[in-house]
C-alpha cells in the first residue's frame, strides 16, 4: 500500500500525543466549568485554565493577564480588530493593513468599512514585503490602528514588524498582528516586536482545533463582540473550552521548549524539497527566500495549473494556498499582490513541512511530484 505523505502543515497539524494526554482527563474526570465558583470542580478547572494561560503567555513573552482565550485565530482577529475599532473610533477611523493578509483580517476590515472605517491596504514588493515607505506616508493623526501579519501563511515571508511598530508608535498608533503561523516556528517576543494586539491558534502548533488566543497589551481598550456572561474578564462571553485550553497551553510549552531543534528540522526538510523541485522541474520560489519561516515553500510550476498537479498527487497532501480559500478556484490574492501573473499564481503550490516530516517522506514526495509533473506536461523522464 502506497503511504500518504502530509505536506500541508500550514493548514493544520496533528495533535501531539503529549497534548492529547494532558487534555483527556478534562473530558470526563475533571469536567468542571471554570466559571463555577462554589465547588472544587469549578476551582480545579479554573486553576488549570490559568496554568494554561501562563504557558501560552510565556511562549510569546507576555504577561498571563494579557491573554484572552477564544475559539480560534479568526475569532481573535475579529475581536481584536472590531473590538478596538468600536472602543476607539471616536479618536480616529483609519486602519492600515496589507494586501497579503489572511482573509480573516481582510474580510473583517471590509465589514468595518461598512461601519465607517477607512481602510488602506499596503502594497508589497515582489518578495511579499510590505511597503514601509507607504507606512511612513500614511501615518497621521487620523490613523487608528496598523494591522500587519508577522508571517505570511502562503509564502512564509516575515514582515519587519519591529520597524513597522517603531514607525506607528512614534505617531501614537498601536499595532496588531496575526502571529498564527509564526508561533512554534520562530522566536516570538511580542514586547520586543512592539506588538500591542496579537491573534493566534492552537491547531497550528500541534494543539487542538477550536481554541485560540488574543493578546492585548495592558492599557489597550477593546469592546466585547459577544455577550452573555462575564467570561474572560468581560471581554469574551461563553463557557471556556477547558480541554482545548489545557491542550493549547501544553502545545505552547512543548513548542517553546524544543524551538531551536524544531526550526533546524523544519528548515532541513523544506530546503531539501525546494532545492530538488527547483533543480529538476525549474520551479520558481515565491516569497522572500532570505526572510521567511523555515516550514514552507511556495512554488510555481511552469506551464501547469496547480489544481491539476494536486489532483494527480493523490498520496501527497499539499495546497494552493490558505485552507480557508481552497474552495475558490482563482489566483491567490497574496501572489497577485506580489506581482505574479494569473497564470503563474494559478501554477503555485504551497508545501509546508512539520515536526513529524521525515527525510524518507521528502525523498518519496520529490519522486512522486516530479513523476506527476512530467506525466502532466509530457516532460521527458530523467
UniProtKB/TrEMBL annotation:
Domain of life: Bacteria
Cofactor list: pyridoxal 5'-phosphate
Keyword terms: Iron, Iron-sulfur, Metal-binding, Pyridoxal phosphate, Transferase
GO molecular function: cysteine desulfurase activity; iron-sulfur cluster binding; metal ion binding
Xref: Pfam families: Aminotran_5
Aminotransferase class V domain residues: 5-362
EC number from the UniProt entry: 2.8.1.7
PROSITE patterns according to UniProt: AA_TRANSFER_CLASS_5
Reactions catalysed: (sulfur carrier)-H + L-cysteine = (sulfur carrier)-SH + L-alanine
Family statement: Belongs to the class-V pyridoxal-phosphate-dependent aminotransferase family. NifS/IscS subfamily.
PANTHER family the record matches: CYSTEINE DESULFURASE, CYSTEINE DESULFURYLASE FAMILY MEMBER
Protein name, as recorded: cysteine desulfurase
Naturally occurring in which organism (per UniProt): Marinoscillum furvescens DSM 4134
Amino acid at each position: 500500500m502506497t503511504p500518504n505523505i502530509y505536506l500541508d502543515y500550514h493548514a493544520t497539524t496533528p495533535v501531539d500525543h503529549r497534548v492529547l494526554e494532558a487534555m483527556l482527563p478534562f473530558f470526563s474526570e475533571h469536567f468542571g466549568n471554570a466559571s463555577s465558583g462554589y465547588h472544587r470542580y469549578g476551582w480545579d478547572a479554573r486553576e488549570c485554565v490559568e496554568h494554561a494561560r501562563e504557558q501560552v503567555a510565556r511562549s510569546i513573552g507576555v504577561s498571563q493577564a494579557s491573554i484572552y482565550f477564544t475559539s480560534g485565530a479568526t475569532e481573535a482577529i475579529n475581536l481584536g480588530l472590531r473590538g478596538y475599532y468600536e472602543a476607539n473610533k471616536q479618536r480616529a477611523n483609519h486602519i492600515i493593513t496589507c494586501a497579503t493578509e489572511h482573509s480573516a483580517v481582510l474580510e473583517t476590515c471590509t465589514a468595518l468599512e461598512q461601519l465607517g472605517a477607512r481602510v488602506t491596504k499596503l502594497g508589497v514588493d515582489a518578495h511579499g514585503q510590505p511597503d514601509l515607505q507607504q507606512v511612513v506616508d500614511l501615518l497621521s493623526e487620523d490613523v487608528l490602528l496598523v494591522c500587519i501579519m508577522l508571517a505570511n501563511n502562503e509564502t512564509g515571508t516575515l514582515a519587519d514588524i519591529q520597524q513597522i511598530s517603531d514607525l506607528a508608535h512614534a505617531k501614537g498608533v498601536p499595532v496588531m498582528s496575526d502571529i498564527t503561523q509564526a508561533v512554534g516556528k520562530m522566536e516570538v517576543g511580542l514586547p520586543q516586536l512592539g506588538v500591542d494586539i496579537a491573534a493566534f491558534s492552537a491547531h497550528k502548533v500541534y494543539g487542538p482545533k477550536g481554541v485560540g488566543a488574543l493578546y492585548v497589551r495592558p492599557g489597550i481598550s477593546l469592546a466585547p463582540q459577544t455577550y452573555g456572561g462575564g467570561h474572560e474578564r468581560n471581554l469574551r462571553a461563553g463557557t471556556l473550552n477547558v480541554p482545548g485550553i489545557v491542550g493549547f497551553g501544553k502545545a505552547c510549552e512543548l513548542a517553546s521548549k524544543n524551538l531551536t531543534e524544531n526550526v533546524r528540522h523544519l528548515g532541513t526538510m523544506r530546503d531539501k524539497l525546494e532545492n530538488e523541485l527547483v533543480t529538476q522541474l525549474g520551479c520558481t520560489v515565491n516569497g522572500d527566500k532570505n526572510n521567511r519561516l523555515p516550514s514552507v515553500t511556495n512554488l510555481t510550476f511552469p506551464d501547469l495549473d496547480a489544481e491539476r498537479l494536486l489532483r494527480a498527487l493523490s498520496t501527497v497532501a499539499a495546497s494552493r494556498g490558505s485552507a480557508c480559500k481552497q474552495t475558490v478556484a482563482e489566483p491567490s490574492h497574496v501572489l497577485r499582490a506580489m506581482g505574479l501573473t494569473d497564470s503563474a499564481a494559478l501554477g503555485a503550490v504551497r508545501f509546508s513541512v512539520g515536526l513529524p516530516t521525515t527525510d524518507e517522506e521528502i525523498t518519496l514526495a520529490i519522486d512522486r511530484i516530479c513523476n506527476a509533473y512530467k506525466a502532466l506536461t509530457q516532460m521527458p523522464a530523467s
